[in-house]
Each structure stands twice: as C-alpha cells, then as structure tokens.
Amino acid sequence: MGTKRNGLLALLGLGALAFWKYKNATPEEQQAVKDKLNTAKDNLGKFGNDLKSKASDVASQVQNKANEYTNKAENKVEEVKSDVNSHM
User: Fold this and answer.
1) pLDDT 10s digit of each residue in the chain, 88 long?
2) In this structure, is residue 42 part of a structural domain?
3) I need a surface site. Which of 3, 25, 51, 71 has the fewest CB within 10 A?
4) Where in the sequence is the domain holding 68, given as residue range(s)?
5) 22 and 33 in contact (C-beta within 8 Å)?
6) What is the rounded distance in angstroms from the CA atom of residue 71 to the CA atom of residue 67?
7) 33: Cβ–Cβ under 8 A, 6 or more apart, which residues?
8) How far is CA 85 from the centre of its chain?
9) pTM of the model
10) CA-to-CA distance for 85 and 23, rounded, in angstroms?
11) How far apart are the first and last CA of the chain?
C-alpha cells in the first residue's frame, strides 16, 4: 500500500510542478502547452474512433461467420431430413 501512496504523491508533485511552470510561463509558452494538449486530445479521440471502428468490423465478421455456420447447419438438417424421407 505504501508504494501506491508514494506513487500518488510523486504524481501530485509532478502535477504541482507542471502547474507552477505553466503559471510562470510566457503567454506564448502557455499557448504551446495548450496546443500540445489539444493535439494529444485530438489524437486520443481519433484513436478511440479507430478502436470503435475496428471493434465494429470484428463484430460484423463474427456475425457473418455465425450466420454462415447457421446456414450450413440448417442445410445439413435439410439433407438429413430428405435422406430419412427417401429411405422411408
């Protein structure tokens, strides 16, 4: 548990340092930081959308495979039925 607490304190310390540096930066430096954050946010959003699209593709592939197997099974059942009927 101590390690988690120390990690959290270190993270808070880094956050406080970053905030202090930001507050004491020139307006140009502050704008550069904002631009970096916006770019990172955009990239994260794009990454999230890519993941959603990939997940959707995989889901539809799985659905197609399931449908394919269902059709094969139904065809097999029909074959067996007609086989049984022809032997009766």
Assistant:
1) 678 888 888 889 888 998 899 899 999 999 999 999 999 999 999 999 999 999 999 999 999 999 999 998 888 888 888 888 887 7
2) yes
3) 3
4) 26-87
5) yes
6) 6
7) 22, 25
8) 52
9) 0.45
10) 85
11) 75
